[in-house]
Design brief:
Strand content: 25-35%
Structural class: alpha+beta
Order of helices and strands: EEEEEEHEEHH
Number of strands: 8
Number of helices: 3
Helix content: 10-25%
Shape: elongated
C-alpha cells in the first residue's frame, strides 16, 4: 500500500482517508532510532474545484536508547503536516514562490494522482525527538526519573565501572623530591 491520493476520486468538500505504511516504504532511517511498528496516517482533504487542502496526522512508534540512562525506550511520535495543492497552470514565478513556501504545491492540470509519502516522511523526521535531552528537562531523565544534577551517592562513588577496573591495577612511580 502507498499513500497515493487520487485527486479525481475526491468529492467536493471534506474527505477522510487513512494509510498504513512501513518505515521502509517511507525511507525512514535514523542512526539513533528504529521504527518497530507501522506508520499510521490520517488525512483530511477538503476539495474546492481544483484546490485541495490536505491536513494530515502521522503516528508511529520509535525505539532507541535513552541518552541519559541508556535504557531501551519506546516512544510514540505524533506529527502533523498541511499542504495546499492547486491543480492549474502556473507561471515560473508562481512555481518558484510555491517551492519556497513549502506548504503550497502547484501541479499540472492533467495530474490525477499525488503521492503523500514525502510529506509524511518529512513530518515524522521533523518531529523525532532530539538525541540529547533538552535543557527544559531540568536534568531529570524522562525515562528513569534519575536527577542527573544530584551529587553522586556514596554507593555510586564506590561502584567502579568494570570497563575502568584494569586502570586501578596500574602503578605509577612517585617522583623523588628535589629532582
Amino acid at each position: 500500500m502507498s499513500a497515493l491520493l487520487v485527486l479525481d476520486d475526491l468529492a467536493e468538500g471534506p474527505n477522510a482517508l487513512a494509510f498504513e505504511l512501513r518505515a521502509e516504504q517511507l525511507e525512514l532511517k535514523d542512526e539513533f532510532f528504529a521504527f518497530p511498528s507501522m506508520v499510521e496516517t490520517r488525512v483530511e482533504v477538503r476539495r474546492a474545484l481544483d484546490n485541495f487542502r490536505i491536513d494530515g496526522v502521522v503516528t508511529c512508534r520509535i525505539a532507541g536508547e535513552c541518552y541519559r540512562c541508556l535504557e531501551e525506550v519506546q516512544e510514540e511520535v505524533t506529527a502533523r503536516f498541511r499542504l495546499l495543492l492547486q491543480r492549474r497552470q502556473a507561471t515560473p514565478e508562481e512555481l518558484a514562490s510555491a517551492e519556497k513556501d513549502g506548504f503550497i504545491e502547484i501541479v499540472d492540470p492533467g495530474t490525477r494522482e499525488v503521492d503523500l509519502c514525502s510529506y509524511i516522511r518529512e513530518a515524522v523526521i521533523l518531529d523525532l525527538p532530539m538525541r540529547i535531552p533538552t535543557p527544559d528537562a531540568d536534568g531529570r531523565c524522562p525515562h528513569c526519573g534519575v536527577e542527573e544534577a544530584d551529587e553522586p551517592t556514596a554507593e555510586q562513588e564506590r561502584a567502579v565501572d568494570p570497563r575502568w577496573a584494569a586502570l586501578a591495577q596500574i602503578e605509577f612511580s612517585q617522583p623523588k623530591e628535589g629532582s
